[in-house]
Design a protein that fits this description.
alpha+beta; TIM Barrel; Jelly Rolls; eight-stranded parallel β-barrel; six-stranded antiparallel sheet; 33 strands; globular; GH; Beta-galactosidase; hydrolase; Galactose-bd-like_sf
Length: about 600
């Protein structure tokens, strides 16, 4: 049984320093878990932490998918000699779409999400009923490896509904959780008052100044042991912004100070992985108080790569930061052998990784029209959620009434990008938060918007936003009478492919594909030279989004997605470009 007091943790009566690293099971392929977890242990960590992304497991109300994955991940961690920390949400942030909350739910409850609203809580309870039995069965006091379970996530950065937090904590206890519950928040007074609960362990999150962070925690919770639940040793990236890195020596020095303070720690991240599919979230910056304009859009979608400048890079290879962290942890273990113990006594070993493939460029020789779903007719443009679509594309079409002069056309509430066509001619690419020159159109023309969703905001007051457009005006008059055709992109939609025109002509918004023949498999880094923005699939699996703005210009393709023989690479380019090939690069380019 894990117990604690102000001095630290004890497991079955013996001291234990929790030395944890975050590895999100949904950001790596299951076939890669053994190698990633072995590398975590070889670094000197004795615990692994993972979030649970609700929206992956309940893509539609009452339809549960992939719920066994968490248990399989925890079992693999146990095989690798690691204890585990589970953070089931329901909200996780994590730079993940909508902070892990299902879009169908937040579209319904709106601002009532993350409160004690009965409709929201009913959905949360149903999900936890489905998820938690597998966690409960794997607790340390039942012979498993789960040490702790989190209540919500950084709630002090969002709200003050203590009844909501109490409902979650009581519900976890009622479902059989007997290991310690905990909360995690920033080390600020308003966060630690808003996000904690009496009788529930409080932890703090920070990237530097550990002495200040633990002092803030001690002011509020002198009876709790110091624990940094998220030591931000790197950071994540946004499209069109610089790639983030952190000096490895600086991060290692901070880790050493955390341990010197007598604290337990969870490296966020030990291994970041990849935002496969449409999983990447987004942030939305509030303007400075005295600001009148933005240099960039305040909407900031997260990149497909979640490399995070972590000790283990996106494909699981150790970095300079890994080597320095390993030294810090080895020094700590030598000085505190009674605390820095593992689930078992095996000697850790760093695993070998598969090779990185080198191959000629893959020519895109076939193409297909986009296979939109059945049309829905409505007075105003239906939002994605009203069409049963979490992410993808919607083609909206309407006609401007005849008999009127050229007047300005305004698209309201675009989330997040759209190609605007008038009478079939591409006239503008629109982007959320970016001003466009005024466009005037006459009466009688057909207006088409090919709208694309990017990540839902995962942190702050805009969590729970909807996708699509709010409306389109011709001068001040709204256009009514819309047709909406949805297209889900994950998994790859079925389409009728034929030969690609030799001159590369035709609508850029189409599926194109080529074949990669392999004798042996390995990891790959794929690039789309000449591409502007779009999506890339490998054998029907959506790797994620690409965007020429960077900072990321290659997509990581894990070895398990490739096979000897024929491999199909499929591309959807949404910019005004016609890429004709996909390249395999020897190294990643993250900016």
């Amino acid at each position: 049984m894990l117990t604690y007091d102000s001095a630290g943790f004890r497991l079955d009566g013996r001291p234990l320093r929790i030395l944890s690293g975050a590895v999100h099971h949904f950001r790596t392929r299951p076939e890669q878990w053994p190698a990633r977890l072995a590398a975590v242990r070889a670094m000197g960590l004795n615990t692994v932490e993972t979030y649970v992304a609700w929206n992956l497991h309940e893509p539609a109300p009452g339809r549960y998918e992939r719920t066994a994955e968490l248990g399989a991940f925890l079992d693999e961690a146990a095989r690798q000699g690691l204890w585990a920390i589970v953070r089931p949400g329901p909200y996780i942030c994590a730079e993940w779409d909508n902070g892990g909350l299902p879009g169908w739910l937040t579209a319904r409850v709106g601002r009532r999400a993350r409160t004690s609203d009965p409709e929201y809580l009913a959905a949360v309870d149903a999900f936890l009923d489905e998820l938690m039995p597998g966690v409960v069965a794997r607790q340390v006091d039942r012979g498993g490896n789960v040490l702790m379970v989190q209540v919500e996530n950084e709630y002090g950065s969002f709200g003050s509904d203590t009844g909501y937090l109490r409902h979650l904590a009581d519900g976890l206890l009622r479902r059989g959780v007997t290991v310690p519950l905990f909360t995690s928040d920033g080390p600020e007074d308003h966060m630690l008052t808003g996000g904690t609960l009496p009788g529930v362990l409080a932890t703090v999150n920070f990237g530097s100044a550990p002495e200040d962070g633990f002092a803030a925690l001690r002011r509020h919770r002198p009876e709790d042991p110091p624990f940094c639940m998220e030591f931000w040793n790197g950071w994540f990236d946004h499209w069109g912004r610089p790639h983030h890195t952190r000096d490895a020596q600086d991060a290692a020095d901070t880790l050493r100070r955390i341990l010197a303070a007598g604290a337990s720690v969870n490296l966020y991240m030990a291994h970041g992985g990849t935002n496969f599919g449409t999983g990447a979230g987004a942030n939305h910056a509030d303007p400075p108080f005295n600001s009148t304009a933005w240099t960039h859009s305040p909407y900031q979608p997260v990149t497909t790569s979640y490399d995070y400048d972590a000790p283990l890079d996106e494909r699981g290879a150790p970095t300079a930061k890994y080597a320095l962290f390993r030294e810090v942890l080895a020094d700590f273990a030598a000085a505190h052998p009674d605390e820095a113990r593992f689930l078992d006594g095996r000697a850790p070993a760093l695993p070998e990784l598969p090779p990185v493939l080198e191959a000629p460029a893959v020519a895109l020789t076939e193409s297909a029209a986009l296979p939109f779903g059945p049309a829905v007719h409505a007075p105003v443009p239906p939002r994605f959620e009203e069409l049963g679509l979490e992410h993808g594309l919607v083609r909206y079409t309407a006609r401007v009434p005849a008999g009127r002069p050229d007047l300005p056309l305004t698209v309201e509430g675009l989330r997040d990008r759209a190609v605007l066509r008038v009478d079939g001619v591409r006239v503008a690419d629109l982007e959320r938060g970016v001003a466009r020159p005024e466009l005037a159109v006459p009466g009688g023309v057909a207006v088409e918007l090919l709208a694309e969703s990017l990540g839902r905001v995962n942190y702050g007051p805009l969590v729970g936003e909807t996708k699509g457009v709010d409306g389109v005006r011709h001068e001040r008059q709204y256009l009514h009478g819309w047709q909406a055709e949805p297209l889900r992109l994950d998994p790859l939609p079925a389409a009728d492919f034929g030969p690609e025109p030799a001159d590369g002509t035709g609508d850029a918004a189409r599926l194109v594909r080529g074949v990669l023949d392999l004798t042996d498999t390995g990891d790959a880094f794929l690039a789309v030279p000449g591409g502007v923005r779009g999506y890339l699939w490998v054998n029907g699996f959506l790797l994620g989004r690409y965007d020429a703005r960077g900072p990321q210009t290659t997509l990581y393709c894990p070895q398990p997605l490739l096979r000897p023989g024929r491999n199909e690479l499929t591309l959807l380019e949404l910019g005004d470009a016609h890429p004709c090939k996909i390249e395999l690069r020897p190294t990643p380019t993250l900016g």
